[in-house]
What does this fold into?
Amino acid sequence: MLIDTHCHLDAAEFAVDREQVAARARAAGVEAMVVPAVERDNFTDVLDCRAHFTGCHAALGIHPMYVARALPDDLACLRTTVAQHHPVAIGEIGLDYFVPDFDAALQQHYFIEQLKIAREFDLPVLLHIRRAQDQVLKQLRRFGLKGGIAHAFNGSRQQADEFIKLGFKLGFGGAMTYPRATRLRELAATLPLEAMVLETDAPDMAPIFAARERNSPEYLPRIAQILAELRGISFEALAHATSANARAVLGALA
It folds into this structure.
């Protein structure tokens, strides 16, 4: 059985067939999925997914690409919602220095304040780190958190080792399935297996066999098979290890 550690099941792309998507994923062997929020307005949708779908777990946070439209009291709302609903993690949070005209100071503010909330509630974090690995690591070293997952990891081996030292697992999904992603595939093949978890990021980051289509959690077994082949191990060994890793870092899954 597999765990999808990052799946936006609440997204509008699944509005017409969310029930069927969840059912197909479960039938394919995805026993659990973590659904991270991206802003205050979808906290309720994420919690509804948790209530409605077997094996669905909620994470709550404000995504760096949404901070420009966040309101001053959104952080207080996050703290209150976490206290009431006990998510498995704070997320999706972090920094994104890839998007055009990003406001680094504003992203840093929301990231730091959410790290404080994670520390307050002793929760792991789901990290968005696009083009910002070193800046994220700098803040993580300051706060000494419980750990978490570096979602869609695509940094260097040195950066990977630094995340691992801080108690983080590294998320691998659709991007790794493309043969042209040679550096990422080398990481996928050589990183310690105990540091890796699986994810889809559905409906985004579709794997090569669904390129230009809507990504879906039901694709996780095929993604896992590709990772197993890169590492030269059986699918069963890969599934067992990555699921154990997910439970270890997201303790509420256990």
Notes: The two ends are 14 Å apart (CA to CA). The chain has one domain: 2-253.
